[in-house]
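Figure 3 (text version): structure tokens given as input.
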């Protein structure tokens, strides 16, 4: 009988030095109460992975999603009001049946406007016995891949801009045990990857770092 917000409140009360990231929470389920709580919590960090799937309302209707682009953009802006410049990872499917070049560009332009830090991109995959598999206007595989490449280029641009916006900032980094070429790696609260010379004393500990 508990709700999602009940769960995150209970997690936040647990003792210990740890971080929690919210992943795969659809925009219609990301309530104002959750956003407000996460902004003030001890353990939840400013990092959200939110499925969008398409930045075109016509395609979202065909997918039978319970939200539209206006709601999605509103949620993004509300989180930013509470948390400044959080990390947003967004799922996007391209090549869904009926996605013309014009409708694809609606998604592309929408992503440019909301400026996520990262885009998880998937070409639509036709699956037997699903409603979408029987829809007319299936998109050619070559066109799907070409659109994936265009979105990947946009992702690279937005990801770089997000990282650059934190240059010179002081952030808390939790370093992990992975070692590669004498380096160790860790993430800030908002999921910026940081590398430094390997030091086993820092594994599993939070260090204050100036990003460059």
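Below: residues designed for each position.
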């Amino acid at each position: 009988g508990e709700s999602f917000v009940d769960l995150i409140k209970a997690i936040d009360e647990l003792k210990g030095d740890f971080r929690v990231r919210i992943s795969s929470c659809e925009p219609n389920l990301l309530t104002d109460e959750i956003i407000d709580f996460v902004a003030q919590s001890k353990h939840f960090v400013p990092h959200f992975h939110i499925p969008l799937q398409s930045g075109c309302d016509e395609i979202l209707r065909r997918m039978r999603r319970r939200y539209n682009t206006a709601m999605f953009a509103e949620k993004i802006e509300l989180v930013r009001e509470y948390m400044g410049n959080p990390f947003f990872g967004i799922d996007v499917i391209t090549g869904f049946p009926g996605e013309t070049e014009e409708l694809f560009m609606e998604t592309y332009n929408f992503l440019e406007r909301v400026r996520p830090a990262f885009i998880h991109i998937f070409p639509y995959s036709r699956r037997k016995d699903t409603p979408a598999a029987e829809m007319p206007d299936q998109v050619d595989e070559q066109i799907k891949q070409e659109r994936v490449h265009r979105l990947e280029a946009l992702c690279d641009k937005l990801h770089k801009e997000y990282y650059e916006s934190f240059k010179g900032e002081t952030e808390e980094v939790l370093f992990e045990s992975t070692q590669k070429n004498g380096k160790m790696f860790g993430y800030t609260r908002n999921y910026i990857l940081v590398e430094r010379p390997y030091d086993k004393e820092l594994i599993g500990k939070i260090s204050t770092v100036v990003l460059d």
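The chain is about 35% helix and 25% strand.
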